[in-house]
Write a structure and sequence with these properties.
Elements lengths: L2 E3 L6 E3 L2 E3 L13 H13 L4 E3 L8 H10 L8 E6 L15 H15 L4 E6 L8 H14 L2 E7 L3 H14 L4 E5 L13 H8 L2 E2 L31 H17 L3 H10 L8 E3 L3 H8 L8 H11 L7 H5 L2 E4 L6 E4 L4
Parallel strand pairs: 3-4, 3-10, 4-5, 5-6, 6-7, 7-8, 8-9
Antiparallel strand pairs: 1-2, 11-12
Helix pairs in contact: 1-9, 2-3, 4-5, 5-6, 7-8, 7-10
């Protein structure tokens, strides 16, 4: 396992992040405590140190399992990230949302479940379209100054909101968001329109969730397997099948699984990217870890890019065009360099 800096910080995280949404058996699925412990052991033994959870995962059980594990292991070895925003109880009208009251309450509850004095990374889980972004940034900065969190990050939020927040934080001397968590995969490339260019501009690390598109990119649906939850239409349509077939073909060429190809594609896109790999079985994690030994060639990347290409829309596609531009002063025509 190699280590990378998380965004514009000195925080060193492993190339893969372990997603723990499945730690717990609520809802009739997931890993029990012993299996979850074994998964974290396997991850740590491979050099993994970056764990991703949230206050609502398995009704708080995910955090509780991690907390019990941490109480018997080196807490400082791990980079522990959790989230706040979504409703985790019914006690009051402010038990959800991005507001400061919910932020402070949620962090205190997460610290108790995780049996720790501090969080390494706190994500805003999803934008509520209500709370002023300055309220969010000031609250996060206060938590950092109090030593309850080390870094702030954000998930599932429009690019313009994140950009406004980081710009305001820079102006005010507050801590900025260092990571952006969004759905991103060969089947879901729409973040390339605004979110990823924004992240690159601010030096943020992208931490994709569902980098395997809910398992679709492993080829399991083409083989007739069914997912735990009915997949969204864009993961089962003709376009996703066409993309998956190319993933499977490249996997056959280099003797690895389709999951390795799909994961590695996210890691070789020319920007800081640490995909989140979930696991409810040790064998699933072991297989995902083999991605670290895979390197896709320029030709393979090109084939994957071409089969999964999306229309960026305006102004993205406009910027990418080869255009002839009229010089308004002399009437000359200048070739505009194609840029990406």
């Amino acid at each position: 396992m190699q280590y990378k800096l998380l965004g514009r910080s000195g925080l060193k995280v492993s190339e893969l992040c372990l997603g723990t949404m499945g730690f717990g058996t609520e809802g009739g699925w997931g890993a029990d405590k012993d299996t979850s412990f074994a998964i974290m052991d396997e991850f740590a033994n491979a050099g993994g140190n970056f764990l991703d959870t949230a206050n609502v995962y398995k009704l708080g059980t995910s955090e509780k399992i991690i907390g019990e594990y941490m109480s018997n292991h080196d807490r400082d070895y791990f980079v522990l990230a959790t989230k706040y925003t979504l409703k985790d109880n019914l006690t009051n009208p402010n038990a959800s949302g991005n507001n400061r009251k919910n932020m402070m309450r949620s962090v205190e509850e997460s610290l108790k479940r995780l049996k720790t004095d501090f969080l390494d990374v706190l994500y805003l889980h999803i934008w509520d379209d209500i709370t002023p972004i300055d309220e969010v940034l000031r609250g996060l900065d206060d938590l950092i100054r109090q030593g309850k969190i080390n870094y702030a990050a954000i998930s599932d939020t429009p690019a313009w909101v994140v950009a406004k927040g980081n710009t305001l934080a820079e102006l005010m001397g507050w801590s900025q968001f260092i990571a952006l968590q969004v759905e991103y995969s060969l089947i879901q490339r729409t973040p390339e329109r605004e979110l990823i260019p924004m992240a690159k501009h601010f030096g943020m690390t992208v931490t994709p969730w569902a980098p395997l598109a809910g398992g679709a990119l492993t080829g399991k649906y083409l083989k007739g397997e069914q997912g735990r939850v009915k997949a969204e239409s864009n993961r089962r349509d003709e376009n996703s099948e066409r993309i998956t077939k190319v993933v499977m073909a490249i996997a056959d060429e280099i003797g690895v699984s389709p999951a390795h190809v799909a994961l590695k594609w996210t890691m070789q896109q020319g920007f800081s990217c640490t995909p989140i790999v979930g696991a409810t079985k040790v064998d699933q994690l072991k297989d995902n870890l083999k991605t670290l030994d895979v390197t896709l060639t320029v030709d393979q990347l090109k084939r994957l890019d071409e089969v999964s290409a999306i229309k960026l829309g305006f102004p993205g596609d406009f910027f990418n065009e080869d255009a002839v531009k009229v010089n308004s002063f002399g009437g000359f025509y200048d070739k505009v360099e194609k840029r990406r």
